[in-house]
Amino acid sequence: MTKRSKEQDAATKAIHNGFSLISDEKLLQLYTSMVKCRMIEERARGLLKQNELADKDEIAMGREASEVGATIDLLAEDTVVPLSRDVAVNYIKGVSLDKIFGQISARADEPVPASPLDLATSAALANKTKKNGKIAVAFLGDGTASHGSFHEALTTARAHQLPILFICHEILSTESGSRSLQAEIEKIALEEQPCSFPHIAVDGNDVVAVYRVATEAIAHARRGNGPTFIECKGERSKAHDPILNMEMYLKRKGLFSKKTKLEIAAGFTEILDAASR
């Protein structure tokens, strides 16, 4: 992320000018980033199988739209806390492929890091205190509502108007998890607090929709208006593949061809090969 000056310029523009139409350049950047993230995840899956860790580690296949849409315009100084083993988010936030694949190949019983809620909330609180304009983004799973830290983190973020985004991946097939999450959010919303806490549901397989919502939420946080909870709903299936969805969208705009995808894949495969040896 530290080398992506164009993306930082776009983020700054969004902060000062508010949301505007998404350019063709940005649409192609969103698509290219999703394809690269999918390729990284596929390569990571292969490495995990070699280490007999495939059943222990969560692979983020199918979450590319929410990952890319929510983080592509963040600044290098912002804090992003991904779900455990979420290698794509680490790549988007600037971790080198060499380091990502090196960690996967070397680890066996690596301990799971601290709660992303605790890490992100602490970072947001520090940013709020320092008034430095930085924000934090925490990625959550749809089972998060069952953890005790969930209510505490959201209540703290709301009470202190923390500059933080909570991005929750919700799989629609897990109905009990969905009801638990919704009930907990509604409980927090009904509590007597002096400030609002926007809760936005979006199609998690639509990167354009996620990007629009995230752009506004990021600007909202940077202006000191507090947190936003973005619920990315969707099914993980070929029929709802976020990359195929984006390809169809780009085709309608005359921005995509099979050659486009082949060129992206060919160039990035060489980079992946070099990093994962």
Descriptive account of the structure:
The protein has 277 residues and is of the alpha/beta class. The protein has one domain (5-276): Thiamin diphosphate (ThDP)-binding fold, Pyr/PP domains (Rossmann fold, 3-Layer(aba) Sandwich). The protein contains eleven helices and five strands, in the order H-H-H-E-H-H-H-E-H-E-H-E-H-E-H-H. It has a five-stranded parallel sheet, with helices on both faces. Helix 6 (116-130) packs parallel to helix 7 (148-159). The longest helix has 27 residues, at 24-50. The protein is globular. The model is unreliable at 1-19, 53-58 and 173-177 (pLDDT under 50).
C-alpha termini separation: 23 Å
| CATH-derived architecture | 3-Layer(aba) Sandwich
| Major sheet details | 5 strands, parallel
Which CATH class is shown?
Answer: Alpha Beta
CATH topology: Rossmann fold
Helix-strand makeup class:
alpha/beta
Radius of gyration: 18 Å
The helical percent reads 55-70%
Count of structural domains: 1
Average pLDDT, rounded to a whole number, is 81
